[in-house]
Design brief:
Its EC number is 3.1.2.14. This protein has 252 residues and is of the alpha/beta class. It contains seven helices and seven strands. The protein is globular.
């Protein structure tokens, strides 16, 4: 499990696990540290995709199905033993949603809460042009178009770092483009509560689409900042407090 999951603060007696899924090009360094910020009732796992960090020598995941299968097979025992919630940011929204959908359909398991951030709703028509965008092979061209795909953050000046970010992000966007979801007309996939977080300066997203995906409550919060609003200390503090409150109020 250590290959797939980063957990810097083990809490075997926690009531619930919060499993975090990082953004395109991201690793585990940010979300893994959340483990130190939550109280003893919540243990934080962060998913590490192949092709980065300790999995640098592995080939990148080629499609969403392979990611879903790995996460499910490795974590199934842990997901069965105690309640869990998902947090996904940007690409992580789609990864976590795909995993949650598979768990519900195949095993009857469901998160106590889905926390989704900075992404179109999976049933949004806005996904179509993004999935059909041609991803440039040239690093400079790719980095220039990242803003179109929701990656508007300041890039390092170091050429090697820029090259690595471009490589990982490009493969992750290609992974995103294999994500597929079609909501059946009468089928509501989830019954858990869903909270969606967005940024004031980010692109407008079809946030209301989340209401169609659960019979539980849906809540929406707009926080100040850009696509990576959660890196701001005040916003991070809000997220930690809100997620804690939602999990502790769930019927665990």
């Amino acid at each position: 499990m250590e290959k797939l999951v980063a957990c810097v603060q083990k809490r075997p007696d926690a009531l619930c696990r919060l499993i975090c899924f990082p953004w395109s090009g991201g690793g585990t360094s940010y979300f893994a540290e959340w483990g130190k910020l939550f109280n003893n009732s919540i243990e934080v796992f962060c998913i590490r995709l192949p092709g980065r960090e300790t999995r640098l020598g592995e080939p990148f995941a080629k499609d969403m199905a392979s990611v879903v299968n790995e996460v499910t097979s490795v974590l199934l025992k842990e997901l069965k033993e105690k309640p869990f919630a998902f947090f996904g940011h940007s690409l992580g929204t789609y990864t976590s949603f795909a995993v949650a959908l598979h768990l519900k359909e195949k095993y009857g398991l469901e998160p106590v809460h889905l926390f989704m951030s900075a992404a179109h709703a999976p049933n949004s028509a806005a996904l179509v042009p993004l999935k059909n965008t041609v991803v440039p092979d040239d690093n400079n061209e790719f980095l220039a178009c990242m803003g179109i795909l929701g990656g508007n953050y300041e890039l390092p000046r170091n050429e090697n770092l820029r090259r690595n970010i471009a490589l990982t992000s490009r493969e992750d966007i290609r992974l995103f483009q294999t994500f597929s979801f079609e909501k059946a007309e009468m089928n509501i996939p989830f019954s858990c509560d869903v909270t969606y977080f967005s940024a004031s300066d980010d692109k407008m997203y079809d946030v209301q689409g989340w209401r169609e995906l659960t019979s539980g409550d849906t809540s929406f919060y707009e926080l100040p900042g850009d696509h990576f609003y959660l890196l701001k200390p005040d916003n991070e503090s809000f997220l930690i407090k809100h997620i804690t409150r939602c999990i502790e109020n769930a019927s665990l």
